[in-house]
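Hi all, a correction to my earlier message: I attached the wrong file for MTCH1 protein. Here's the right sequence:
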Amino acid sequence: FSYPARHIVEVDGKRGLFRGLTPRLISSTLSTITRGSVKKAFPLEDMEHVSNKDDVKTSLRKVVKETSHEMMMQCVSRVVSHPLHVISMRCMVQFVGREVKYSGVFSAIGRIFKEEGILGFFVGLVPHILGDVIFLWCCNLLAHFINTYAVDDNFSQASVIRSYTKFVMGIAVSMLTYPFLLVGDLMAVNNCGLRAGLPPYAPAFTSWIHCWRYLSAQGQLFRGSSLLFRRAPVPAACFPID
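and the right structure:
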């Protein structure tokens, strides 16, 4: 974390650390509002908490129902907020080529619409949604099975442990789904006219699957996943694969 942060400050000053902040805040706000609206429009029926092993089927049904509802909210909010996420990412990567192509939210919206059409606002959406869906199901199901089979109801701190299980599973699963986030963000800036999305910094990917295969071949599917350790790029990373 300190390496890129220090480099950005040296080049752009501390203000450079906040590139893309405005569209990112708008994106987060839209996501929160959308989730709340969907939750009100499609409320989830209250179900009594179940933890007894004799009621495993009932408990699993409850988890599936809750996860399905959460998945719907997440997918809708992701679609609504993704255009602002694309703008935010492009504002950030302008640092690489010292460009000013995307200088504001409204001007960026007009430019993307003019150059790429409506679809330009949704590049990288598919891997993001896939990552969200896989994260939700893996996290919730793992937490459910651990709470059901590994945590004994007779244990005095059972309720406390269960309250943290989902949080811990979220951290673990987020590492597994990180490649989807990375691929989605790379596709958001790929071949958009900015130097960071063009050779030699990156090939012009034909699809997010092409991007995934490229990163996998270079061993870079988890690049940027750690705040503590930096992975130097492989020299061959500049060359595209078929």
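Sorry for the mix-up. The chain has one domain: 1-218.
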